[in-house]
Amino acid sequence: MNNAAGAPEAASTDSIVVSALRKSYERAPGSDATYAIDGVSFDVPQGQFVTLLGPSGCGKTTTLRCVAGLEQAQEGRIEMGGQAVFDAAGKRFVRPEDRPIAMVPQSYGIWPHMKVVDNAAFPLRHGRNRRKVKDVRERAVRMLDQVGLGAMADRWATQLSGGQQQRLAFARALLCEPEVLLLDEPLSNLDAKLRAKLRQELRSFQEQFGVSALYVTHDQAEALALSDKVVVMNHGRVEQIDAPERIYDRPRSAFVADFIGSANLFAVHDVSQPRADGSVVAKTEVGALVCGSSSDGTGDGGFVCVRPENIAVRLVDDGAPEPADNEFRGTVLSSEFLGDRLELVVRSAGTTTKAFARSGFGARPGREVTLKLDPATTRYLPG
Ligand SMILES: Nc1ncnc2c1ncn2[C@@H]1O[C@H](COP(=O)(O)OP(=O)(O)OP(=O)(O)O)[C@@H](O)[C@H]1O
């Protein structure tokens, strides 16, 4: 669990607690090290699905590999089930094979020259559980049954489809009875439709087996659809940790707002003190906007953030009244038909705004429109 300062506190209900992890790949003494991860802290509560999300190079894989024990950080601490598996200060490092984890790699790591059942049983024959398990084949077949592959146990692994290979990789990982599954972009090699189907399957297996999961992706839709909690990373640091709905509806920074979904960001040059209801008035290039605030503090700078689907669009007709509070006018630059809606780009006061309208809305390029922002879904993000 996180405390008020956002740092994790060790608790018996957490499968993993990562605290202040810092790693640089430049090890030479005196080198001007830049950190691949720089003070990363988060936790994975027991049975939950937690996703590390961020752009390429932000440090997701480095973090996952530190948790797996495949990389060693220079600072910080990692606990699993209440025990330290890494502690830079105490010079403790537990080897990957002795950590209660199983990893599902991007390529699934399936052996083409083996039958499905032998692939599934591989860690029981060769891993840390090797000597403990006698009824290896029986256990592997039982697990294959549970993921719907029982009838394919004696096929060659190469005869499986992409989706079946994922199930096999999942079954093999679960056979190790890990505390936590570590998944490194396991859906990235599949086409969009199959990816959407398999992510639901992945989530339902994870829930069914009650195993905790730490998942890495740069795909924000995948992160929102799958996770109990999303850890958004940027430049080696954590930007925000929250449930998917809060990440989307209440981004804490312009980076999170922009990276997750589609967001309009209006630069702010002055902002009022918070009012009794917590809202602020932010002066922007499109006028003064009343909006909710993500923080207690205010000041100059920052952005007002509003999602395209939260903007109401009206055509401006002859004799239309002047824009009211939280409204501004603009000219339609482009109007794209997306099946269920139109995506409009509207130019006003030197900036462009993206807004959605219903499919039949007659907003051709060149038409003047009024855009109305709802204070409940418009947020001020301090700079
Ligand atoms: N073995 C390595 N040696 C040197 N630098 C590395 C190494 N692995 C990663 N880095 C650097 O560390 C930073 C973080 O990389 P990392 O692979 O963790 O990011 P990522 O968020 O997983 O990116 P991607 O989504 O592209 O896989 C990057 O700047 C990367 O270039």
From TrEMBL:
Keywords: ATP-binding, Nucleotide-binding, Transport. PROSITE patterns: ABC_TRANSPORTER_1, ABC_TRANSPORTER_2. One of its GO terms (molecular function) is ATP hydrolysis activity. GO terms for cellular component: ATP-binding cassette (ABC) transporter complex. It comes from the Bacteria. InterPro entries: AAA+_ATPase, ABC_SmlMolc_Importer, ABC_transporter-like_ATP-bd, ABC_transporter-like_CS, Mo/tungstate-bd_C_term_dom, P-loop_NTPase, Transp-assoc_OB_typ2. Residues 16-260 form the ABC transporter domain. It holds the Pfam family TOBE_2. Transmembrane segments: none annotated. Its EC number is 7.6.2.9. This is ABC-type quaternary amine transporter. It comes from Amycolatopsis jiangsuensis. The lineage of its organism: Bacteria, Bacillati, Actinomycetota, Actinomycetes, Pseudonocardiales.
